[in-house]
Design a protein that fits this description.
2 domains, 41% helix, alpha/beta, single chain, 4-stranded parallel β-sheet, Rossmann fold, 15 strands
Length: 459
């Protein structure tokens, strides 16, 4: 892990376990362990060091990524494992194919191993790119010619670097089209079109889901108070889940992993809108806040529950709305994240908001649907799998008014046609089982793996 002016080494320990027949290795290192958050600094870290601002990405993100990739390569060599395919997830692992081919010490060992790189998020700030080209060369050990030949907007870009050495895909067909066939690529810094100029066509494969991992028929596994069956139309248990969670949130109290702001009045007959996720511009939280302010003032007969953390300005505004007297009992903000609580929110909600500016795939819409929580989505990227009026609600224009109008549509149907809501809930689950399980999707990835194997012949 060299720096420009210093030859360096870092120690890595490996943890190993077998989970459902799959051997899993975890890399432990001081560079990882010293962080309190996975991707960004936390409020606690900001208190310790003012420059580690809450929500800001780690300053050494590139070194963290390279350490992970070097550890993975070293482990495979240590175990004498020569994989048919190495599947690299996102920019965090996308330099590995170049290192395999350009490092003489690696290239012979991995001469029969193909590589696939999946782009989970191509947005600006998600490439894991680095502007310090000399540092990139030093820490990766890649030749200077490789570093300088694989820049985008004057930074060494892992996705661009992977283009000559791996098969590239992204996580939905629509997102692949947006990146390479539309002006939406401006949100990526031009990544999709830069790849096209190199002759690289992104494959689009919409992510799947394992429905059994989110089956409300097994409430004990998910921490739910009652069982229900969305596909079968047996939703009495979902009503119990809603009533139980609202009762729990009917007074502000100290919680284990989140801070509760505001409360929900015990009115389970009202439609409950929910949101679980990062509070960022990409997730459309700016629109969500504006729409809420208007709708809460216009309609007194719905409730809003938000679970998440993110940009301090969004957290502050949601705290203000939830803690204020004007909308008391109608909006609750659970600041932070708790996976057990998230399951309860999915199960309790009637409607799940996904107003993302862009969304490569989206998994929360699947999860919500499996719990009978109908998604309301901005019709973009992977969210186009939600069929408006059939498996959820969708809108085209990325604006507060469009989101607000769609929420009105959902509430109107909820109040006028409970049977119509039930039909949509059932249709959403059926469609997941028919089109979006991993069993349905895996064949597409096997095709990419075969393509990666053929690509090895170039080297």
């Amino acid at each position: 892990m060299n720096y420009v002016d210093e030859n360096r080494r870092e120690a890595v320990s490996i943890w190993q376990n077998e989970i459902q027949g799959v051997t899993v290795f975890l890399a432990e290192a001081e560079r990882f362990a010293e962080k309190l958050g996975v991707y960004a600094y936390t409020a606690e870290e900001e208190k310790r060091h003012s420059w580690q601002r809450q929500g800001m990405g780690h300053y050494d993100y590139f070194a963290m990524n390279i350490l992970l990739q070097k550890a993975a390569i070293a482990l495979m060599i240590l175990l004498d494992e020569r994989p048919d395919v190495i599947h690299c997830q996102d920019g965090h692992a996308a330099v590995l194919p170049a290192m395999l081919r350009e490092h003489e010490g690696y290239s012979h060992f991995f001469r029969h191993s193909g590589c696939v790189v999946t782009v989970h998020n191509a947005g600006i700030g998600y490439h894991q790119d680095v502007a310090d080209l000399e540092f990139a060369a030093a820490v990766t050990g890649l030749p200077d010619r490789v570093i300088r030949a694989n820049t985008l907007n004057d930074s060494f870009d892992p996705f661009i670097a992977a283009a000559d050495y791996a098969v590239l895909n992204t996580v939905s067909e629509q997102y692949a089209r947006e990146l390479q066939e539309t002006d939406e690529d401006v949100r990526t810094g031009g990544l999709g079109h830069a790849l096209l100029q190199r002759g690289v066509r992104l494959a689009g494969i919409t992510n799947g889901i394992n429905p059994q991992d989110f089956d409300p028929a097994e409430p004990e596994k998910l921490g739910l108070p009652a069982a229900f069956d969305v596909a079968g139309g047996h939703l009495e248990g979902k009503r119990i889940c809603k009533e139980t969670l609202i009762h729990s949130l009917s007074r502000v109290k100290k919680r284990h992993r989140v801070v509760q702001h505001g409360f929900l009045a015990e009115k389970p007959e009202q439609p409950l809108f929910t949101f679980v996720g990062r509070l960022t511009l990409q997730k459309g939280v700016d629109l969500l806040v504006h729409s809420l302010e208007s709708l809460l003032a216009e309609d007194a007969d719905f409730q809003m529950l938000i679970l998440g953390s993110g940009a301090p300005e969004f957290e502050a505004r949601l705290i203000e709305l939830a803690d204020g007297d004007e909308f008391g009992g109608r909006i609750c903000f659970l600041q932070g994240y708790d996976p057990d609580l998230a399951m309860q929110v999915y199960a309790a909600g009637d409607f799940f908001l996904i107003p993302s500016l862009y969304e490569p795939c989206g998994l929360t819409d699947y999860i919500a649907q499996l719990f009978g929580n109908l998604p309301l989505v901005h019709y973009v990227g992977g969210l186009v799998k939600v069929i408006d009026g059939t498996t959820g609600f969708a809108y085209q224009d990325h604006s507060p008014s469009a989101l607000g109008e769609t929420m009105w549509r959902a509430m109107t149907l909820y109040r006028s046609s409970p049977a119509g809501i039930k039909t949509m809930q059932q249709a959403a689950v059926r469609r997941i089982y028919e089109h979006h399980t991993w069993e349905k999707v895996v064949g597409r990835y096997l095709e990419l793996y075969e393509q990666a194997g053929r690509m090895v012949c170039r080297y």
